[in-house]
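Objective 1b. Sequence-to-structure analysis of Transcriptional regulator, LacI family.
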Amino acid sequence: MQQIADHLGVSKFVVSKALSGKGGVNEHTKSRVIQAASQLGYFTQKNAYIKNKTAEQQMTLSPAGKQSVIVLMPNIRFQTKDSLYWGKIMEGISQELEQNGLGMVIVSESRADHFIHVLNPEGILGMIGVGQIESQLLLEVHRLGIPMVLVDHEDDLIPTDTVFANNMDTTARLCNHLIGLGHTRLHFIGDVHFSRSFRDRWGGFREALEQNGLQVPPPRNPMLAINGVDSGEFLTEEFESWIVEQRNKEDIPTALICANDFIAISVTAVLSKHGICVPEGISVTGFDNIDDSYRSQPALTTVHVPKEAMGQRAVKKLLERIQSSELAIEKILVSAELVHRESTSAPSA
């Protein structure tokens, strides 16, 4: 803590209060302390931040031990149990916990101060975080010494096990398939700052194009908007103006690689509105293989993410972490597979 204080030019007392989660330190200073602590390796040191536990206090899977797991899924960015994507992950978590005789408490709180008020560290085994979660909230869980695993999210400040689909490699395979069909003008549609998964999918797109000697255009941000449960409705103005401009310049892309199925379905609707047929005019692909992907017209070429398997794997990793806290932290990649449907074909001459 003295090193952190010297690094920032503040007192050790300020550092202590910021890291303890107590009040009396403004948010800007707390953020600087947390960032510096991460850079200086504070969170990776044994017993530096996580509260020590005696042998009698260690979490156990015995009948006399704690029997519930908190599943934290803040209700932001379509993250609800009714979601066609997140809901499937929740189903996998629930099934695996049930098989192990464990209960599940779903918490949708997104503010750290509210979450801590409802949290009883002595009554739970651990926590599984699903989707985007604020650093401050995760930091409070880490401070309390609660084992946790994150699904489809990671935080640079907090060392913890994570479970992802193999986003980068699968997107690269999808692009290589399209390039093999003869596509040379491919564009990525999605906000790379929206989530780690979107960023990894963009990375796979870029890698495939670079390896094939093709120009890598910047990603187009379609601006997702929340409009009810799992909507992801497409704000069309920016995309419409761009695609019309590209057509007027006779530089229309031959394929659009969309960051998820919602974007792909919305893109297809915009193209249809402007008389551009899919796949004859432009091939379109999605990602996630939600139920709507095969109901769309045309049926969407996409990537099947084994969502239930991700949830199940997160539970297994959490139980491993509870029983063996000294294990190396893991980033687990669950294999995803291409699903070829009617929205892609060879480019027209």
